[in-house]
Design a protein that fits this description.
Shape of chain B: elongated
Order of helices and strands of chain B: HHHHHHHHHHHHEE
Chains: A mainly alpha (254), B mainly alpha (288), C alpha/beta (305)
Strand content of chain B: under 5%
Largest sheet of chain B: 2 strands, antiparallel
Oligomer: heterotrimer
Structural class of chain C: alpha/beta
Strand content of chain C: 25-35%
Strand order of the largest sheet of chain C: 6-7-8-3-9-10
Shape of chain C: elongated
Number of helices of chain C: 9
Radius of gyration of chain C: 24 Å
Chain lengths: 254, 288, 305
Amino acid sequence: MKIGAIAGITFKEAKRDRVLYLLFFFAALGIVASRVLAVLTVGDRIKIIKDVGLASISVFGVLMAILIGTGLVYKEIDKKTIFTLLAKPLHRAEFILGKFLGLVLTLLVLTAAMALIFLAIVYAHTLTVEGGLLVAVAYIFLELVLITAVAVFFSSFSTPILSSLFALAFYLIGHLSWGLELIIRKMRPGTGRTLVRALYLVLPDLENFNFKTEVVHALPIPPGIYLSSFLYGVCYTAFILGLAVLVFRRRDFI
Amino acid sequence: MGERATVRKGSATVLLVAFLLAAAAGFAALKAATDRVVRAKLPGASIIYVPSGKFLRYATFGYRALAADLIYLWAIQYYSTPTIDDRFNHLDHVFAIISELDPRFQDPYEVGALIAVQEARNVRAAFAILDRGAANNPDQWVYPFNAGHVALMTMKDYPLAEKYFEQTMKIPGAPEFVERLRANAIFKKGDLKTSWETWLDIFERAPDERTKRIASNHLYNVKATIDAAALEEAAAKYRERFGRPPADLGTLVRTGFLGEVPRDLDGQDYLYDPATGKVTTAISPWKR
Amino acid sequence: MADAIRIENLRKTFRLGFIPKPREILKGISFAVREGETFGYLGPNGAGKTTTIKCLLGLIRPDAGTISIFGRPYSSPHSREPLGFLPENPYFYDYLTAREFLAFTAELFGLGRGERDARIARLLGLVGLERAADLPLRKYSRGMLQRAGLAQALINDPKLVVLDEPLGGMDPLGRKEIRDIIVRFKDEGKTVFFTSHILQDIEMICDRVAIIVGGRIVKEGGLRDLISEKVLFTEVTVSGLPPQTFKGLGESVSTQGDRVLLKVYDEACVDEVVALVHERKGRLVALSPRTETLEDIFVDTVTRT
């Protein structure tokens, strides 16, 4: 499978770039932070350990997705390795998808390892394995998949610095777009409101993948949202990847 | 051959665009569907971690004022979201952070106090917010003024109101009606003697006719209140002795309960109602 | 039988820069490479050689024109199945070893595992990289990279090999080795299309050449047709005599010490010069007839356009 070959090589590159060493950093941070915060706060330190743990899995993942993802395609063009690749019987779409899947695989390994470390730290404090936390981690991973697609998309036509900024903007917009709902509620019906409403539907809503609060406080999660959030993530990712392929197909490699 | 390839290329692009449109329609529909699912909200959970402003001062690096702006904007949204039942729990704390970050940021003091009084019904928080405003902005009369207003109108704590108005008057630029509010607070407090002296002072220093008139009306009112109290007291004593109220005020002088029947500031007689024992002015003090 | 490569009226204009300025690189190129021949593509720097190759490989979309590879349009990835490509100054994933890199390229062609390993071993032998096969490409010298590049271009046992400046940056020994490999391709019946500016190499191994200057093909044909066997002039080096002696017979090009280099155009005059040298007791140092070379044609066409 050609996509598999490209994904494999991308994963190998991340591995050789010592990306996985970050896990040690994560583990150290998790342990130190849970110790320090426990000293600083009064009251429920388990809750704070969980919050900090989930937040750092998310932040680390997003940083990785953006920093690696935005260089992914650009580096191939910049280092001219893409010439040899595209001279093979390979669709450009296969190239993009392979690169994307390679990074997703890297992030899967990273997230899984971080989740294990996290569960271990929580276990050390509560002596119970809290599998429920994995729900939040799973949706953090789904968010990472979407961010990766965005990073690869920008990377297919822009420089890493610009792409990083764009991808970061996407991430921030994704977490703030719920604010549009408040604006819509305050607007009078009319063209303006319809436009904002359309914008609201089109802009990414990454809060759909945010189950951190529910999981930490053991609140009930309505079952319907699992499926619709999951499908939302898949659909949005497919859309961004389609866009990336569309742009990438038209490119000249000078 | 070449043309066939071009055609194939074209149809691939059309397919791709169709795919994009389908995906976009899909995620927009799913977004709407996800929004319809009501997720459990943890009331107030979002501000459990609000740290102290002193800490944030360092954590926000050079962007203190910006952080203050953002927290202020967020706070307005947050406090106007009725679905968060216990949103007012940390009201004072949140506005304290804003003032720690940007002590000269004026709006949050006023708006915060307004939210505290009108929405949260938490006057203590309002006084705390306004006190910080006054402490951080000693040149602004509006904070003690607002505090005095809250004390006067909402709490009806007249000594407190007097204190705040007095504080307001000392700040250059405070409007002159503040001293009248203070005199009124003193009157409401029940300190009629001081009230009389204060109003007399205002009357004598009045720069224009209108102020003179207002002060004169208040003096009329203070005197009427003092006189009415004396008359009603005498009438009550009379009734105690004779078992019935006096028929008129002159009776009180004749029976020795009163040296003389006082008249109001305009020299008019007070009205006495034997049925209730109440003494009133012939006309309203405000319509002389 | 279809041509290995057929290019018709290929045009490409680039718009580069922040404020795009159109620059026409290819102004209607047409040529064909027959199956089984070794074809040299010549041109000065910036003439459009690499752009032509990139169009051929689908790396650049031409504005107009058609390209077919064994009868298949260039735009279909299938057209590149019988093709092996070695880019100019090859860049590969430098964190991979040569063996890993070849395995990866084999995967792109969908080769099975058993076939893959056998072929990789054979190719590493062919390009002489057996001993460096498990070193990361980062540690390779330029020449070694070129060999690794050649190996990856041959992973699919291509019917058509496209080489962009295959001899650039090689030491003389390495150049000879690559040249031998190209000659062997010809014996195996492979079609070879390559660019080079080392003209002697092309002369030695090409069947046909095309010369591109400023985005246009200015000459195309069999090497035998382009280069005539005719003697252009004879260079005669004489010592012990002043240049004036040969006035009217030949043009004196340079004098070094007591040596004089003469360019004699008329073959009859050569005998007269030799006779004159004997008569005046001078010494004939060298005498070489110059036939037309590819370089002459190249320089001639480039300066004329």
